[in-house]
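Please think about what follows:
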Amino acid sequence: TMKNLQCPKCHSREVIRLPGNIQPPAMLSGTKLPSSFKTVMVTHYCCTNCGYSEVWVDHPEDLKEIMKKYGF
């Protein structure tokens, strides 16, 4: 994983960490529709050598929320 700040693809240590979020669908479209989906905080890791990237959900309890909204 890139959480240890080493790329699993090219083994470079040139990895950047970018905080971000997954917003409720209504917020993405710019409308204010009611939604039970909350903003989920994620961290993006990107290798500046080869471009490989990973996105990790910051709080494990948010995985249930994502599964409820987008799962099968």
Summary: Residues 62-70 form the longest helix (9 residues). The two ends are 26 Å apart (CA to CA). The chain is about 20% helix and 30% strand. The chain has a mean pLDDT of 81.
